Amino acid sequence: MDDDNGTAVTEFILLGFSGLGTYQLPLFWGVLFVYLITLLGNSLIITLTLLDSALSTPMYFFLRHLSMLEIFYTTTIVPRMLSDLFSLHPFISLASCFTQMYFFILFAIAECCLLTAMAYDRFAAICRPLHYATLMNRQVCVGMVGVSYIMGITTGTTNAMLIFTLPFHGSNIVHNFFCDNLPILRLASADTFWAELGNLIFTLLFIITPFALIVFSYVRILITILGLASAQGRQKVFSTCSSHLLVVTLFFGTGIIAYVKPGANVSKDMDQILSLFYTVVTPMFNPFIYTLRNKEVMGALRRKLTKQL
Questions:
Q1: Per residue in 172-186, pLDDT tens?
Q2: C-beta of residue 176 within 8 angstroms of C-beta of residue 275
Q3: Of residues 110 and 230, which shows the higher confidence score?
């Protein structure tokens, strides 16, 4: 299919890390290990927040859905990547490519929105403690999670449709290990203005805007913390936010670098390394951040282990 005779492309070739040679085997085992840790760690958080009544607050309701999204997010990418590492013909059909791109965008955007909801939850708990029960009641929490998924579905459908309604002729080589929107868009044979405009709008709406709202929430939280009289009180309040703030930094930091950088100044290899980090490595950190740095989660884990033993 990689010719210049105008034949319509029916499948893409995901080059990925095929040029690594003997390093493919260590990469395979490394990615598999990280993926299994991601599955086990996030499954543990889901189980604990479902079974332990002490973890029934809005923060852990959001955390449970965040862990679910991390599992779906990585599963959309990693199994296919692992199978392609040793495949002589890493082809993917247009339908499969569309499906992978759709679910990748869906879960990524839903996670952006959910992290924003979690920042608002911390803002309400710290800056509006007397109204917290009203501001973050059950209906509000369910509504926030529902809106996060709706935003993901809407963005995934629209963005994938904008790209895959374009014609593809000639080259079908994708310099990535999954069907990300920008590498696929570069292969289109028609004017990509509207698709690029849509991608820019979605980036501004669902990456930059949520990040700005999170920063605003934490500025307000920081002002409130600095206004507390005791150093012990400041440390206690800050400890409730540090885990979420670290996750936000990892997720949005790598995403903004990957999608808002000047494309001409970054090599394809660097693109793939960035993609590998935010699709595979970052989701593994979240369970550790929320368990090792959270006394309530660690307490719930100890209770369950003690009960089982």
A1: 888 888 998 888 888
A2: yes
A3: 110
pLDDT beyond 70 at 1: no
Query: Model's pTM, two decimal places?
Result: 0.88
- Are 280 and 34 in contact, with CB atoms under 8 Å apart? yes
First to last CA, the chain: 59
How far is the CA of 68 from the CAs of 110, 265, 304, 308, in angstroms? 11, 35, 21, 24
- Neighbouring C-alpha atoms within 13 Å toward the C-beta of 247: 26
For 66-92, give one letter per residue: b (16+ CB within 10 A) or e. Answer: bbbbbbbbbbbbbebbbebbeeeebeb
Amino acid at 309: L
